Amino acid sequence: MYYDFYNSGCNNYYDNYNWGYYTGLVKRLEEYIQDELQDSAYYKELAKLAPTELSKEIINEFSQDEKMHAENFQKVYYMITGRYYYPEPLEPIVIDDYEEALKLRVLAETNDYKKYGEEYLMAPNKYLKDLFFNTRTQEAQHAIRISILFEEE
After folding, report:
1. Domains in the chain, start-ordered, CATH in brackets?
2. Does the global pTM surpass 0.85?
3. N- or C-end of the chain: fewer Cβ atoms within 10 A?
């Protein structure tokens, strides 16, 4: 490991105990970075279909938030491994129906809320707990704010 998150005088038992968590987290971070970048790109495309300026503004904010999540996860990935994760090319984005896309995003955002909540509970230190708590909170805000977008049509 490149970065010692628990470099606060903890004993070797604690370090060895968390080794499995961090090695698993590296793989999950790769997935999270990829997913958040894909979500950011999806919202950029969805914003093009937004019926009002307010809805376009809200959706673009979602895109920026998702990009920031990927950047935050990338920082943690680097702290743990000493290298950057290079994401795969993003999947092509095809949105046929604006309202249906919003419904799908509510499901995706609530799934992310649950996923990052589980990460929060497993995280062995305050830095990671804060990261996953804050990410989880923003994902919940997205799901809630999507209801505004249904009214904007």
Report:
1. 26-151 (1.20.1260.10)
2. yes
3. C
